[in-house]
């Protein structure tokens, strides 16, 4: 196949083509240095400039107020499942989790291994077909923090309006960060694996308040690398960071600003999601959406009448250059991940295929 396909995988996900072309151009000789950025010392001025630029761009795009740091860590979002309770869950407090999908459940399970953890709300009994309403949330006593997952990649649901609390609010935003506007000041910590909306796998973005960093600084028995303060004090350069992924993240952030920032990107994302949801809604049950409400604008999940038809759908879309539409192995079905870099033309191509597939089957 000589042309690029439309990549609907949930992650690692599609990247802006302009970003890939820039990286290709600079791969052997970054800004006339005579070497690739992958070969440079992580303490060189060039790398420090890239990391500083990426931090400032994230703050700008998320409209983050004063009093926050942006860290570039490793270990994926899954490592944040245990870093958070190790830093912020004392023995006399309880971590509260809103469990609305698989990764939210994993975060809770990790917290429960480290200290006291409470499921303040869940939609597991509803097979994660929606997120919780505010009146369904029941916090424990002595709350250390509340943790939620903003977008449920596997099930295709998303918090539209975030609940508010008088305790620290922490969010895993791996699959919808920078896809829509929200008030970042309501959160004390946001983390996201880069491989869905920000760049390649290998770097995790953490936005953390100074208030939480002060708590982290008091954790004297933690391994050095598990303490957020370690990374904040050294500007994410305590050890060798994932330089090349951070470089790509910085290019993606510049691309996002060129698109008009999060305001314009959100408009585009809602338009893209609407193209596909309209086909599902108008199919008279031929396509059956998993999410009953709180539908994600990043991950669109649906089923067909039987698994044989779903296999046929996946095979025929692949033949058309529409790749990665098989649903997660734990739930099956179809999943179209349409992150920021997915063009409108990709969503329209999928919608056109869905119409023809329904007519033929």
Walkthrough of the structure:
By secondary structure, the protein is an alpha/beta fold. The chain folds into two domains: 18-258, Aspartate Aminotransferase, domain 2 (3-Layer(aba) Sandwich); 261-360, Aspartate Aminotransferase, domain 1. The chain is built from ten helices and 14 strands.
Mean pLDDT: 97
Low-confidence stretches: none
Quick one: how many beta strands? 14
CATH architecture of the largest domain: 3-Layer(aba) Sandwich
CATH top level label of the largest domain: Alpha Beta
Q: Could you give a short account of the major beta sheet?
A: 7 strands, mixed
User: What does the overall shape look like?
Assistant: globular
Q: First CA to last CA: what distance?
A: 27 Å
β-strand percent reads 15-25%
CATH topology of the largest domain: Aspartate Aminotransferase, domain 2
The total domain count is 2
Short description:
The protein has helices spanning 17-26, 45-62, 76-88, 102-114, 210-217, 228-233, 243-258, 261-281, 307-319, 344-360; strands spanning 6-7, 68-73, 94-99, 116-122, 143-149, 151-152, 157-158, 169-172, 189-193, 204-209, 288-289, 299-303, 322-323, 334-337.
